[in-house]
Design goal:
single chain; about 130 residues; alpha/beta; Glutaredoxin; 5 strands; globular; binds glutathione
Length: about 130
């Protein structure tokens, strides 16, 4: 599992030449960061804390479910490190809470939905083989 460097650091450092203006102001905004992250990575969990140290029970539950279905390769974004991303992901997905799982660029749901999909076997079917 890869914990992306904090969202702010990602927005400054991971976006290549366009990520910073000459004066060092960030150019990639939170929405762009989200769009790029969910497009570039097959499985992305927006959460509180990290996979190793979740800072909310719901986020911890999402990690446990993803581990239970065999996910080894995924990116996690800690929204506690960036208030803009914390708000922007809610607008982007039109979903009011964290955690939020994206697979193949598509919003899947929060921890309740993940648990239901896990129990029904639906979640397992969505996991790309190279993520397990
Ligand atoms: N039913 C939700 C519960 C998640 C939830 O209630 N998250 C809260 C507490 S971590 C939240 O995101 N609140 C808004 C915020 O903290 O920005 C789920 O299944 O994921």
């Amino acid at each position: 599992m890869i914990d992306y460097p904090g969202p702010i650091a990602s927005r400054r450092d991971r976006g290549g030449p366009l990520s910073q203006s000459p004066k060092g102001h960030k150019i990639m905004d939170a929405k762009e960061f989200i769009a790029k992250t969910v497009t570039d990575n097959p499985i992305v969990l927006f959460m509180k804390g990290t996979a190793q140290f979740p800072q909310c029970g719901f986020s911890g539950r999402a990690i446990q479910i993803l581990k239970a279905v065999g996910v080894k390769n995924m990116v996690t974004i800690n929204v506690l490190e960036d208030d803009e991303v914390r708000q922007a992901i809610k607008d982007y997905s039109n979903w009011p809470t964290i955690p939020q799982l994206y697979i193949g660029g598509e919003f899947v749901g929060g921890s309740d939905i993940l648990y239901e999909m896990y129990q029904s076997g639906e979640l397992q079917k969505l996991i790309p083989s190279d993520a397990a």
